[in-house]
Amino acid sequence: MELHVVIHGRKDLGEQLYTQLREAIESGRLAAGTRLPPSRLLAEQLGISRRTVSDTYALLTYDGLLIGKVGSGTFVNARGARALPRPSAPALASAAAIARWQNIVVPFLHPQLAGALRCEFIGGAISKNLFHQDDWRSCTQHALRQMARERGFYSQPEGLTALRDAIARYIAFARGVNCQADDLVVCSGAQQALDMIARVLIEPGCTVAMEDPGYTPARLLFVALGARVVGVPVDADGIQVERIPADARLIYVTPSHQFPLGMPMSLARREALLEAAHAQGALIIEDDYDCEFRYEGRPTDSLQSMDTRGVVAYVGTFSKTLLPELRIGYAVLPPAIRPAVIKAKQLTDWHTSTLPQWTLARFIAEGHLLKHIRRCHAVYASRRERILQRFAGDLATWFEIVPSTAGFHLAVLCKVPLNIALLVELAHKVEVGLYPLAPFFHDSPPRDGLMIGYGAIETLDIDPALDRVRDILEQIT
């Protein structure tokens, strides 16, 4: 890679080179420790004499900006970069659009390592020590060998055939989803799947219906694309279908494990939802975000497996089963929208990185995914049981549990008036991360309570953490 230096004409060559290198070093563009090209190579690149480059290097070394290391080369010396004035923001014609995006309050930003609390009841996070790195590493080596055989072309936007086939087999086995590899599109997480589907369906001013309370990032995405989002109340059976607006063209639901309350949608409500969507020409997005973990009762059908009219797009992710950083999700799309979504995927990022795609395809094919889910299931079931016992025991004075059979978070609602904001603040001071339910409500009156995630907290930390929560509750009530 060539060093960016521009030489004009044939005069003052050394001065031009010296000025540009000094400015690059002092501004921080050339960071401390950066190795400069050998004088011969830089001279060839710039079309000037090697002596001019050598003299410039010597002068910068004398000034303390460069340092020569015998046998290694010439490096930028360690010294503070000079802060350069930043250009002022111009008055752009798109200022209103920029402000609309800038003012979006994005939820669910997970804490970085330095800011994480000892006991985190955050939702959507997992315990990394449950993930077998050796199995993944072996599959990554296979993926690198596969990529080495490929020519230097971009991959297909819908994802590698090997991965789509593996996912199709897996979700048919685990969730009864009725699909083939050709029905799938691989995405960079479930959020991109939602974005692509929404892009091809939503026009400014159109109506989108979603559960209320519901998954806030989905609502914000639909709003950002110009939709009028209507929150539809939920009850013990799921979304209240009769209250879905008649002009809704997109309906977003989480039927297997309602987010954030946790109850599954009843069979009768599922049938009513499918009928309503067909009658008004709407498409349903079924977000099956943590369907792999079920602890009680009989399995329930996915909406997609019940769909005989092509009105359901099924969205899943491996962020909850493997690693959040992996960023691989997928969408099983009905024929009416699949070609358009593939075009949207190609225009967005062309295709998801193929290295993790090859790796995951191998990981699934060799049975590692199912073994990993079984390991996690045993751990999560133990954590869930302990949390249920505590909220049915000494914490029952303040909270009641919303019945839930799946996933790795629970919702608890306040039985008595509580200052949830104060509880969260005081818990944070004793290294316990708690998260309120109220931000997930939009049109419906918010209910006070907590979302209790048990994917990230270690099993032995649950009782000490809940002891601290109980002590705080006793102080503030």
Largest sheet: 8 strands, mixed
Question: How many domains would you count in the coordinates?
Answer: 3
Looking at CATH, which topology of the largest domain would you report?
Aspartate Aminotransferase, domain 2
Computed Rg: 28 Å
In which order are the strands of the major sheet placed? 4-11-10-9-8-5-6-7
In the CATH hierarchy, the architecture of the largest domain is 3-Layer(aba) Sandwich
Number of helices: 15
Q: Report, as a whole number of angstroms, the end-to-end distance.
A: 65 Å
Q: What is the general shape?
A: globular
CATH class of the largest domain: Alpha Beta
Structural class category: alpha/beta
Number of E-type strands: 15
List the helices and strands and how they pair.
Elements: H1 13-27, H2 39-46, H3 50-62, E1 66-69, E2 73-76, H4 95-102, E3 119-120, H5 133-149, H6 161-175, E4 184-187, H7 189-201, E5 207-212, H8 216-224, E6 228-235, E7 238-239, E8 248-253, H9 267-280, E9 283-287, H10 303-306, E10 312-317, E11 329-332, H11 338-349, H12 354-365, H13 368-392, E12 399-401, E13 409-414, H14 420-429, E14 432-433, E15 449-453, H15 459-476
Parallel strand pairs: 3-14, 5-6, 5-8, 8-9, 9-10
Antiparallel strand pairs: 1-2, 4-11, 6-7, 10-11, 12-13, 13-15
Helix pairs in contact: 1-3, 2-3, 5-12, 6-12, 7-8, 7-11, 13-15, 14-15
Architecture overview:
With 477 residues, the protein is an alpha/beta fold. The protein folds into three domains: 13-76, Winged helix-like DNA-binding domain superfamily/Winged helix DNA-binding domain (Arc Repressor Mutant, subunit A, Orthogonal Bundle), CATH 1.10.10; 113-127 and 371-476, Aspartate Aminotransferase, domain 1; 132-366, Type I PLP-dependent aspartate aminotransferase-like (Major domain) (Aspartate Aminotransferase, domain 2, 3-Layer(aba) Sandwich), CATH 3.40.640.10. Helices cover 40% and strands 14% of the residues. The protein has helices at residues 13-27, 39-46, 50-62, 95-102, 133-149, 161-175, 189-201, 216-224, 267-280, 303-306, 338-349, 354-365, 368-392, 420-429, 459-476; strands spanning 66-69, 73-76, 119-120, 184-187, 207-212, 228-235, 238-239, 248-253, 283-287, 312-317, 329-332, 399-401, 409-414, 432-433, 449-453. The chain has an eight-stranded mixed sheet, with helices on both faces. A three-stranded antiparallel sheet has the order 12-13-15, with helices on one face. The longest helix is centred in the last third of the chain and has 25 residues, at 368-392. The termini are far apart. The relative contact order is 0.12.
